[in-house]
Amino acid sequence: MAFIRTLMCGALACAAVLPAACNKAPVAPAATPALDAGTAREEETASMRAWLARMLTCGDRDFLRSDIDMQQRHLTKIPGMQCKVAPGANNNNAAPLRCAIVPPLHLAQADIGWFVIGRPQDEISTIILPAPAESLRTSLSTGIGMLSEGTDLGDTTVQCALTDEALAFGAISGTVQRQGDASASVRVCAFELADGVPTCTRTPDGERRFRIDKLPRGDYLVLAVPEDAPDARVGFTDCTRVPDAPACTHVLQVVEVRAGRTTEGVDPADVQPMQDAGDWPQPPPAD
Fold it and tell me: Is 170-276 a CATH 3.10.20.30 domain?
């Protein structure tokens, strides 16, 4: 009997314990700490500045095509950014947008505290950055834009292509109008007007016709150096070999090269001794 009473008491004790264990509320998992508001703002600002660096190096064609009001609204959302339309323009959409940012944006090897976005023209959008071109070259992908020296203040002009064809190379062709050794070749150079960089070609012996390929779009000055008269220069000026032509200025004429096109009829004819061509650019040493 004692054994039975002990067994019954143990069963009753278990019955009393089990409901309490079963009815115990489950333990909720630890809550994930909410993202700190300051950290979220820092991440958003970093994302905006990363986009800005990409846009300033031709990485957002849609933005560069957009109207100036939209650009200004978008840019001024970036903390530390102030933008305004350049004064003196009758039409805002024809005026450049000038912006300043604090702290400066680190871009390649330069710190950019201000920039200017020009309006698109001929499928090119122009951006001016206050840094030498050498410090920005690593930031620009091949085929989407090109760099050239801006002003004497050391800034750089970035030309952003808004289409894949906008920066295709062009060419200049023509005939050097000069008498002389009929068997001699002629070296012809095209000097990019903005930075003076020359691109030269040499004709075959006895040939006066020339073609200079792989020229970036832009404005050029053209002159030739005859093989049989290396101290002479033959410039493409307003002077021609036409008899009784009006007096000319001997000023080299600007030749425009457009993307993917050949500018024809560039016929240098103004023969000058080197000492009288002091205002003309000088070709680099021949190979």
Answer: no
Strands (DSSP E) contained in the chain are 81-85, 97-107, 110-117, 124-129, 145-149, 156-161, 170-175, 186-192, 198-202, 209-215, 218-226, 232-235, 255-257, 262-263, 270-273
Residue bearing the bigger pLDDT, 71 or 94? 71
CB 250 within 8 A of CB 270: yes
Q: Judge residue 68's burial from the number of C-beta atoms within 10 Å of its C-beta, 0-12 exposed, 13-18 middle, 19 or more buried.
A: buried
Tokens (6 digits) for 42:
């820092």
As a whole number of angstroms, the distance between CA 176 and CA 167 comes to: 28
**CA torsion through residues 242, 220, 251, 273, sign:** negative
Give the 3-state secondary structure of residue 175.
strand
Share of the chain above pLDDT 90, in %: 60
Give the model confidence (pLDDT) of 111-147 as tens digits: 999 999 999 988 999 999 999 988 998 888 767 888 8
Would you list the domain boundaries of the chain?
A: 47-161, 170-276
Query: Alpha carbon of 285 to those of 225, 228, 229, 230, 253: distances in Å?
Result: 11, 16, 15, 11, 23
- How far apart are the C-alpha atoms of 75 and 127, rounded to whole Å? 14
Q: What angle do CA 94, 95, 99 make, to 5 degrees?
A: 145
The pair phi, psi for residue 257, each rounded to 5°, is -110, 125
Token pair of 64 as six digits = 């560069």
CB distance 74 to 174 below 8 Å = no
Provide the token pair at 224: 């030739």
Produce one character per residue of 155-174: b if its CB has 16 or more CB atoms within 10 Å, e if not.
Answer: bbbbbbbbeeebbeebbbbb
Residues 56-92 pLDDT 10s: 999 999 999 999 999 999 999 999 999 999 876 555 5
